[in-house]
Hints:
There is one protein chain. It is built from nine helices and 24 strands. It is α+β, with helices and mostly antiparallel strands. Among the domains are: 122-181 and 252-340, D-Amino Acid Oxidase, subunit A, domain 2 (D-Amino Acid Oxidase, Chain A, domain 2); 423-498, 3-layer Sandwich (Rieske Iron-sulfur Protein). Helix 2 (39-50) links the parallel strand 1 and strand 2. Helix 2 runs parallel beside helix 5 and helix 3 (83-116) packs across helix 4 (137-153). The longest helix has 34 residues, at 83-116. The model has no long low-confidence stretch (mean pLDDT 93). The structure holds flavin-adenine dinucleotide (FAD) and FE2/S2 (inorganic) cluster (FES). The site of flavin-adenine dinucleotide has 41 residues, from helix 2, strand 11, strand 15 and helix 7.
Amino acid sequence: MNVSGEATRSFWMLDTSFPNAPRLEQDEQCDVAVIGAGIAGVSVAYELALAGRKVVLVDRGPLLGGMTSRTTAHLAPICDDGLSALVKMRGEALARGFQQSQEAAVDCIEQHVGRLEIDCDFRRLDGFLFPAAWMDENEAARECNKEYAAAAKIGVEVEHGKGVALKGHEKAPILRYPNQATFHPLKYLRALLADFQKRGGKAFADSAVVEIEEGKQVRLKCDGGSVVTASNAVFATNSPINTWVKIHSKMAPFRTYAMAFDIERGILPDALYWDMDDPYFYVRLNPGPGETDCLIAGGRDHKSGEADDGEARFTALEAWIRALVPDLGRERARWSGQVLDTIDYCGFIGRSPGNGNVFIATGDSGQGMTHGALAGLLIRDLIVEGSNPWEAVYAPDRTPPAAFAQYVNENLTTVKNLAGYLLPGEIKSADDLKPGEGGILQDGLSKLAVCRERDGKLHRHSASCTHLGCIVHWNSTEQCWDCPCHGSQFSPDGTVLNGPAIRPLASPAGEA
Ligand SMILES: Cc1cc2nc3c(=O)[nH]c(=O)nc-3n(C[C@H](O)[C@H](O)[C@H](O)COP(=O)(O)OP(=O)(O)OC[C@H]3O[C@@H](n4cnc5c(N)ncnc54)[C@H](O)[C@@H]3O)c2cc1C
Ligand code: FES
């Protein structure tokens, strides 16, 4: 198991270590406490430090070790559910606000890169939307026309085109979106963290927030017993740990897969590519040393906990990209991670419902890089100025009527999962488990989550997720328990890896 908790290592982890930070061993008092040091938390902490606020940043694990270390880092302002879907769901004015704010987030990253001279391969490039494998030319042209029309309505720069340098698509109808961007996310964020600390910001790793007391001053107790007291708190924990239901019932966790391969420079133009499938596949390049670059491909998403066939998904992903780029070289890395899709395609960034001085940043779907940078701008403005021009787009208390069907659909997962308590277990005995396997065992009236680590060590815990009690599912690719309801993850020994859960999986009833 690697430092970020899951079993696989992303491409970025191959050549970049996580920044060092001490554990919180003393109480701290500050203007703003930021919980979670991924791109959202680091961006918020940094913007507030630039604005002169005294900021304390705490993380349960290593800084940058969450989903940010597992991204593929397209910096694409285009809504990844499609502009036509976004306009239909949010209307033209809010969809335009979404686009402008996402563009502002990329501009902000670019400015920080320039000002701090960060060596992180940031570059502007084109994004190409190309047909899904199953589409014929007419179908693809219809899709292009639909997306082009939506783009025109909200002022997105886009061009019709013919063909991309991917096999079988040399003459296909495509759309070209100029002025997208990409970078090395960990190199960028390490530099932001260093400047944050130089400006007096404090960052602590291995310090999980386990108790939250809201009020005029927010008190956050960490697992070592130290307390951070702050006038404002920002929960940037990927999935918020300060709200139990209101936000989690409006988004759903999806597991997504990525692979990196060597590619000789020049075989594929440097650009972002994503197809018209749903869920979509995507491709980008990363400059390598010498004449060999790296191609990163991703896709094959599924709802978390609803499949445990990671190896088959990697095989399908590899077959897909090798068919498009036959001269691809050897594999460098394969990994998966989780994204949170909201019912109306936009993240929840702003005041936590019912709280004036508590803020959240979550639900950023496959666009967490831009959402994270945007959270820095939006939450900084809400704290420093009291408002931001885009706050309605991301308001956490919204439930647009047009999203009602999605809302019902997402919450059926919880209903179906809880009904699982009435079904028999998946395994008859712990003896059935080989190293690396896990399953749900019926134990009297209880359900147990039982797994055997790859070194043979057996673990038994209650299978009830400590967030709202759904039954967890074994993820053999990442060697952890995933909760399908709202995305909590637990390691084999029951430790929380991802919220909204705060507490570890319980020991079986009657066992210590
Ligand atoms: C395979 C993959 C590909 C992706 N590709 C893209 C892409 O191309 N473009 C894009 O824009 N987005 C992409 N995303 C999405 C994006 O990476 C994420 O949405 C984004 O990194 C989330 O950042 P975050 O800061 O919200 O969360 P995280 O990076 O997960 O940070 C949250 C932090 O909170 C900490 N934390 C949690 N609970 C506590 C607690 N109780 N106390 C203290 N700390 C706590 C965690 O340890 C973690 O470090 C991708 C995601 C995946 C998995
Ligand atoms: S994450 Fe909500 S019940 Fe598990």
